Amino acid sequence: MTDRRRTPDELLSAASGGDRRALARLLSLVERGGPPARQVAALAYRSGREAVTVGITGAPGAGKSTLVDRLIAAVRAEGTPVAVLAVDPSSPFSGGAILGDRVRMQDHALDQGVFIRSLATRGHLGGLALAVPEAIRVLAATGWPLVLVETVGVGQVEVEVAAATDTTVVVVNPRWGDAIQANKAGLLETADVFVVNKADNPGARETRRDLEQMLDLSPPGDWRPPVLEAVATKGEGIGDVWEAIGRHQGQLAADGALDRGRRERLEREFRAVLAARIERDVEAMLAGGDVGPVVGEVVDRRLDPYEAADRLLEARRS
Ligand SMILES: Nc1nc2c(ncn2[C@@H]2O[C@H](COP(=O)(O)OP(=O)(O)OP(=O)(O)O)[C@@H](O)[C@H]2O)c(=O)[nH]1
Ligand SMILES: [Mg+2]
Fold it and tell me: Please, what is the Cα angle at 237 between 236 and 242, to 5 degrees?
């Protein structure tokens, strides 16, 4: 049967049995949004299965994909299956190759224990902030115990995506100002592990020191993010990064923060779904016929915008 004719239910059980095309199709449905995506989301949610999730984030070109590639190798050496989502907030289209094209992640293409997929928003209601947790849930529901999420770019979206994972690794480079940029982008609060990658370039020690000093100034918590050096291209420092991720996961599990974090994320997700749906209702209202005359009254200054909004909302309720 072709993928297009399989129902989300059928796709989910096929994907759980190792059918990678079915899994890819499910993720395309999530990306695209709309009623099938809702069905997929509901099924995945009901499965109740969770994956360990690790976000890898940082400025464009910082070496995230190279690092992910090395982490995959480290994880596979332990025998754990791993799925990777490459998130591109700047691109409305995925094509499924952002990551694989750039680095040698293709090396893992024949490994049945590795699944790599890029993710873009397309039509998803609520954008990446919702598409990413849904995609993660699909992977967890189909039996992937570990999901790595690479996010390209710096900014709000990145922070939002980073907030969708248990552990967030922030990759910076030994460049003047990189540590400060990370701070400005709000990554200092989001980071659980810092990696100064491209430590083969000059300035790595200074960047580490800058980050440590910034961490000294932030309020002390239960976990102080370690600041590690790596040369992803040569595979140097990867063991330390993987070990730090494991330590952070251990700490989360030990003090109940893992469960708390996941509950908080679900609540945030629910709020985002609600907000997105209300926003869509507003769009529909504005496109409807009865708004025009009210807008006319507002622009003619016969009605103030607040009263106009009240009037429309009341008319809708009655
Ligand atoms: N010298 C040096 N170059 C590196 C290192 N890690 C990655 N690179 C190079 O940096 C470039 C970007 O690496 P990517 O892994 O694609 O970086 P990225 O952060 O995934 O890039 P985007 O996804 O485009 O944001 C490539 O040419 C890599 O070979 C490193 O440790 N040292
Ligand atoms: Mg990349």
Answer: 130
